[in-house]
């Protein structure tokens, strides 16, 4: 049972931090400040990244931007195709999205299906003026016409590899790893 | 995570882990009912049949709203407007409904065990919405969710259930569920309304309301079910209320932060005085109704699976 899966660390703690700092500046540049700007993190990885981005942005510009949490489980397109149900997390968007510029934040952009679900969910909460997408890793293999506005790192990967973003808040360490599938 | 069950027939056969999964899922569903657009697309294309052989406002509406907020199609059948009045048996009704391919059948019936019978006959998921004086699991789950919401826990709480225990499926389901979750249950009622050997369910029994509610964290008052009483088990409503009505005075015996629950519909002034029922500092009766929709959404979500 000691199958050696080869694991490669492609980004470390400092790398993640630098990426987030750059994305924070890019978000501010593109939106010309923080007016009408809100962040929404996609559970679970996206939430921690959103919290970090919120902190970074508040260090650059005065004022705190609202942060929401989105669980996309109920909007998945494969929910009735499988008997396995992911444990449903809480969605918390305690502010109106009407006419807001929403920056959706997730850890890995892959097929695009999660983001499709997240956009459907956001639109159920109101009519944002604009939805932008920030991801730490873009690993390619899109199945839907979706692209990110802010990307930490483009990581070409093959379909049988697994890309995971480990964060201190949930895994005890900050790193991005590629695992070869069996 | 998956609920390893085809049906929800009673609290007796749910495990602590399953109860926790249902309650946690329900807590996540609460938020949907606060949105402006109270609908998610999760159960699009699924069909839920509410088959009610007994009167109901809360439970039937709650199941219907739960299904609709998940985008399922819900169909209500009540016995008075169905072929039951033409003499169709429950088994034939069930087989015919099964042939129309619903995904879940919610049933309320005056006969204990009717949902279990249906469960053995049809391949769809069955949810028991009350069977005779046997069980009413969704009520117990929403009660547990309300207790957890207000008290932060269930384990270690003293919970008094008072009134017509013998006729109450709500009491039975709550006793099964709450004792499993580690609460201490006391029941109170006139001797004619206490089933024999109720102690075997793991509860303490009192004939006196005051003794039962002393030091209680939660007081759950049951409705006097006039429609189920073939022979009268107390001399008059007035006499019953003199001894067993929760009011301003006797509630002082409970803990200061006691919460008062009632499964509805309320007989005002019989088992609970209006000032207590309407007092927002202790009454959580409308929270129970609100949580009921979330619990039923959680059950529909967890039960409706896809193809293997």
Write structural notes for this entry:
The complex is a heterodimer of chains A (182) and B (308). Chain A is of the alpha/beta class and 182 residues long. Chain A has one domain (8-76, 92-181): Rossmann fold (3-Layer(aba) Sandwich). Chain A is 28% helix and 27% strand. Chain A has four helices and eight strands; from the N terminus they run βαβαββαβββαβ. Chain A has helices at 13-31, 45-60, 113-124, 168-171, and strands at residues 7-11, 37-42, 67-70, 101-109, 130-138, 150-154, 161-166, 175-180. A five-stranded parallel sheet of chain A has the order 3-2-4-5-6. In chain A, helix 1 (13-31) crosses helix 2 (45-60). Chain A is globular. The two termini of chain A are 12 Å apart. Chain B is of the alpha/beta class. Chain B has a five-stranded parallel sheet. In chain B, helix 2 packs across helix 10 (285-303), helix 5 (137-151) packs across helix 6 and helix 5 (137-151) packs across helix 10. Chain B is globular. At the A-B interface, helix 3 of A face helix 1 and helix 10 of B.
Q: How many domain units of chain A?
A: 1
Q: Identify the overall geometry of chain B.
A: globular
Task: Return the CATH topology of chain A.
Answer: Rossmann fold
Question: How far is it from the N-terminal to the C-terminal residue of chain B, by CA?
Answer: 15 Å
What is the mean pLDDT of chain B? 92
Helix-strand string of chain A: EHEHEEHEEEHE
Largest beta sheet: strand ordering of chain A: 3-2-4-5-6
What gyration radius of chain B follows from the Cα positions, in whole Å?
19 Å
Number of strands of chain B: 9
Strand content of chain B: 5-15%
Radius of gyration of chain A: 16 Å
In which order are the strands of the major sheet of chain B placed? Answer: 7-6-5-8-9
